[in-house]
Design goal:
Blueprint lengths: L3 H18 L11 H8 L3 H13 L3 E4 L3 E4 L6 H10 L3 H25 L2 H10 L4 E2 H12 L2 H17 L4 E2 L1 H12 L3 H12 L7
Antiparallel strand pairs: 1-2, 3-4
Keywords: DNA-binding, Transcription, Transcription regulation
Organism: Sutcliffiella horikoshii
GO molecular function: DNA binding; DNA-binding transcription factor activity
Length: 204
């Protein structure tokens, strides 16, 4: 059975194929949502989600009242490269999620190394159960005050959200994790993290 995520990623690929087949280039207008829906024989809501993904990847842009256009992304080589990279095989998607996993573990370790008691309390105040994984790590990286790590994590997390849902953290898991972080039990924290936060793209 095709999952919703798998389906709209296939639509993304087909839209990109249409762009190539029609010989469209930067600045050209792409077919409308309705036309793409007809050509691909899929619902307009699915086309809309796929277009959002392409816009997030920096490949197209929507101009109010004009339509959707191919973006000149020569200045965004990283976006182009990563955008193409994650829409390919399951292994490359899992590579992205694995990279995100390692960045987040580094965030946790840096937090335990640098955070004061006050900053730990600030973290608890910023979170309420249930909270999302994104909210948890956004709070951690913000408190750590490492602007480069924040930028890298934000970029990788944005692409990860295209291929994997943002999980909500159960209150018990969140409390156990925060307490282990407060006690600076590094081994226990990483064990909890890997148990509850590892993401894998299912092979279909």
């Amino acid at each position: 059975m095709t999952t919703p995520t798998k389906m709209y990623l296939e639509i993304v690929k087909k839209i990109r194929a249409i762009i190539v087949a029609d010989g469209l280039k930067a600045g050209d207008k792409i077919p409308s949502e309705r036309e793409l829906s007809d050509r691909l024989n899929v619902g307009r809501s699915s086309v809309r989600e796929a277009l959002r993904a392409l816009e997030l990847l920096g490949l197209i842009e929507t101009r109010r009242g004009e339509g959707t256009f191919i973006k000149d992304f020569k200045e965004h080589h990283l976006v182009e490269l990563l955008g193409t990279f994650i829409l390919e095989q399951d292994k490359t998607k899992n590579d992205l999620l694995e990279t995100k996993l390692e960045i987040e573990k580094s965030c946790i370790q840096l937090f335990m190394k640098k955070a004061s008691v006050k900053e730990y309390e600030n973290l608890r105040e910023m979170l309420s159960a249930p909270t999302s994984r994104t909210d948890l790590f956004k709070a951690i990286v913000t408190i750590v005050d490492n602007s480069l790590m924040l930028r890298i994590w934000t970029l990788v997390n944005s692409y990860a959200r295209i291929i994997s849902e943002d999980n909500m953290i159960e209150s018990g898991v969140l409390e156990e994790l925060l307490e282990a972080m407060r006690e600076k039990q590094a081994e226990q924290v990483i064990k909890l993290y890997e148990k509850h936060f590892t993401e894998i793209v299912d092979k279909k």
